[in-house]
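Re: export button greyed out
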Amino acid sequence: MDTLPLLSTVDVARFVADGYLRFDELVPAELNEGALAELAELREFAPFEGNPFRPRSGTPLAGCWPADSALRQIYDLPVLAGAIRSLVGDDPVYDHQFCHYIPAGSSGFQDLHCDAAVDSFDPTFDVQVFYFPQDVEPGAGGTRFVPGSHLRMVHENSVARYQHIAGEQFFVGKAGTVLLFHHGLWHAGQPNPSDDDRWMFKVRINPSERQVRKWDMSDYDSATVGNWDHMFATMEEGETAAGQMRRSHPWTRAGQDRLDTIDRVRLWRYLADDPDFDVDWYHTRTDRRAAQYRQGST
Amino acid sequence: MTQRQQLLHLYMSNSAITSPVIAWAFHDGAAGAGPVLPDNSSEPPYAVGVQALEDGWRLIQMSPLNDPVEGTERRSSYLRYEFLFERMVDIGE
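Workaround output, generated via the alternate export path:
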């Protein structure tokens, strides 16, 4: 297995809490230019059958797009390849791609949605790479997304009525920036009132194995604390996985944020293969009571 | 005088109309002929729901409080506390 820069424990905890990671100006300028040319051709002229720029679902990600293409080289960038491996494992699988092209002055927009018509209750997930080959200025209609929404069990456009959510973001960034999304993150394409056509290339990627302990685990012990770590009892200070998972977002404050923490811990227990991990005792107290109840009923 | 309906969805932090607004949506049946919300999509139009009443909106529906369903009682999904308001707007003869 080749060596790649993998995510740290706190990076993965941040992903678990927010539903995305951001890599500013990750792709160099020459690859952005090459990708724009490939995307334009892909959109305008591409037939599906036999087109090497249109991989079939189920293709290993490492075998997608021609070897000398900009798109292939982007997905070979060590930081991106390492981040993908950290979240979905060693042999990620291509699901599908979508080339979002929004002409200058376009008023069209998508309703808020997540990319899963009907999802499973288990904690497994896909990642989606949102790659922006051009600068997106403030007010230019960058992708709308809602940090912390990824673990909500909703169905696709059923969240469309939420026109505005406190703390939502509209992507702004330099060319070559990549957002790495949990597939459940709520998002929507926006109008493009700017004078420049805008491109965004999305690729959905599946795991091919259990997504367990795939990141750089060398900091795991220092970044995690026993399940006694409790914000109203004794809480470990410093940058920890639990610290990430206790964070609330403006739209979850003073209400649903504890359920979000419970959801995050559920995902973390799977990813870290750490069934005793907890934040603020939420799982532990109910797990213990349930075990005591079962014991008494036998 | 012809009237049209404006709708305002406010999503609260909890089941109280006095709790903070965390999300919102506005639909204007008057197509701009009446007052609209401030053009500021980054902050809620009202900090708490009761301010909408003070500003002339009429509450017409709020989310019921549903029993937790066994097996999913610790899962999260939609915004639970939706309050729906209306305001009738005169648009002329």
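The mean pLDDT of chain A is 92. The button fix ships in the next patch.
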